[in-house]
Amino acid sequence: MKSTFIAFSLFLIPLLGISQETKDMDSTAIFILDKMSDVIGDLESVTFDLNNSIDKFDDDNNIEKQYSTSTISFSGPNKLLIRTEGTEGKKGYWFDGEFVTYYSFDENNYVTLEAPETTIEMIDEMHANYDFQFPAADFFYPSFTDDMMDQFDSIKYLGKKVIDEEECYHIMAINKDLNVQLWISNETYLLPKHFVIIYKNKSNLQYESNFSNWSINPTIPDSVFSFFAPPTARLISILKK
Amino acid sequence: MTTNRLNIKHRLGIILVFLALAFPSDLLAQRMGHGASRGGGHSMSRGGGHSMSRPASRPTNNRATTRPATNTRPASRPSHTTTPSRTPSKSINGGHTKNNSRDFSNRNKSNIPNKSTRPVNTNTPSRDKSKVGDRTSNNSAPKLNTNNRKTSNIKDKSINRGDAARDKSNIGNGNRGNNINSGNRNINIDNSRNVTINNRNTYVRPSYAHYSRPPYRYGGYGYYCHRPYYYHPYRPFYWGPYYHPWGYFVTTLATTAIIVSIVNDSNDDDDEYHYENGTYYLKTEDGFVAVQAPVGAQVSDIPKEAEKVEVNNTTNYYYGGAFYEQNKDGYIVVPATAGTIVPNLPEGGEEVKIGEVTYVQFGETYYQPIQIDGKNMYEIVEVKKE
């Protein structure tokens, strides 16, 4: 009896610990995020453009803004193509379900690696092992809303706002390090329109993205996701983190 | 007594659940965290285009046992569970998954997000069997072109860096980084020549100069350079008519070749280096093969093509990838020093992508491509653990 009691007490400890966290989740905000994730989860393929503005520290520790434009295509569970051009140069990612290639147009060199079988696993693994940055990848995690609920202490719905003549739902998520604001389009489809991440712990650096030209379930030939090296491009090695 | 025994299973079960609840995995990925999505990646194979189909792939009794305290599935979403499961998904992310409670009826904040629902992920058999079957068959079946696809060499810093490199026992271990992938070609190196770079001869002496620029940080290391990164492709340089790249093979050496003495060589291996016109050779069964200059080798003369380079305010001579210091007996091979700028690199290097930069690597030495007065050069990088 005594040991049962101890076991039961042990069982309660984590629950107590967690229930002490005070989280402020707005049901409207969660509902909107859920709907958006539902739409994204139901997509079989998608293409969109992304305009990024990224703050970085320069050599003298001043904040320098960098801009880039990406075109991103997902197709099925295991195809991804990203082309990015901006301050940091021109580069692309090709993922065909077997191999992922990072190609730098400026350096004319590339890295090809065997990859996990799904796009999301690939994104996760490449980010963890090689610091590959996939723009706006957060939105495509199947558990996006759950992740937001876990990671942030407060998620609020701030009302309808107009961005680029599109009516959007404005949502703000806050924890001690980050302030994330999302604008989710209330036009035909409930898809992300804009987001800002403010790094409160790093001089309020901002990462800002604007989505445009959503194309829902387009037919994309599989071959575009396979990388074919230009004749002069060099395959180079890569250092694991 | 018998009841106690019967309870052991239950108690073990409770302790397991406790462990699962106490250590939820919160791993970071991308800009925001995606603890759940680690499993989420696997949820691709749950079968449905949407989490609505989950009940089909989840044994109900498992669910009952792993969610004892929370019982979070809100009554407000019954329609989700009744949705018939869809045909195998082509969804780009396997469909939206929801594990957290969405029960907002209770406005008590502390109740809202309950992480204890999370371990369900770990206990849930996450793969829909039919789909896995598909995948395995895909994997087992040889795919077109797979074997021909060249993949990059994956370098691992545990092999390429650290004091182990200076450990003599490491010598001769071939330090090319393990080629983890199945790619069958190492592009930068002509393997037919059997170039082996000896780590002992490529370690970098730290520079005591102050670095005014912040290092490039990657994977827990800082890569320090005095000059900014300026990419130019690696093109091996040939130092005049006598220069022979590493791996160059000859059956006999000229009579002018000398056997070099290696100063302070506490090394156990009794390799005998032959030196001729700036090139070092090791004897093999059939002849001699050109190798990297061994640190500590004392020679009386170096080719006239050797260039002067400044190293910590002293002048070194650089030829064929080796650094020489002048002394009373002639010249002695010294290790590379961080911050040294060289105009050219020999054959045998490998371009390596390190985060967003591409360096040329020779064993332990990383060269950063730079540009000085419009001329392409390289600076030896100082790598420090952060």
Automatic annotation (TrEMBL), chain A:
Gene3D superfamilies with a match to the protein in the record: Lipoprotein localisation LolA/LolB/LppX
Cross-referenced Pfam families: DUF2092
SUPFAM superfamilies according to UniProt: Prokaryotic lipoproteins and lipoprotein localization factors
UniProt keyword terms in alphabetical order: Signal
Keyword hit for Signal: yes
Keyword Protein transport: no
Superkingdom of origin organism: Bacteria
Residue ranges of the TM segments: none
Annotated PANTHER family: SPORULATION PROTEIN YDCC (PTHR37507)
Protein name: DUF2092 domain-containing protein
From TrEMBL, chain B:
InterPro entries per record: DUF6515
Compositionally biased tracts (Polar residues): 107-125, 135-151
Ranges of biased composition (kind: Basic and acidic residues): 153-169
Amino acid composition bias (Low complexity), ranges on this chain: 51-91, 170-187
Positions of region (Disordered): 33-187
Comp. bias intervals (Gly residues): 36-50
Superkingdom, natural source: Bacteria
Name of the molecule in the record: WG repeat-containing protein
Species assigned in the record: Formosa maritima
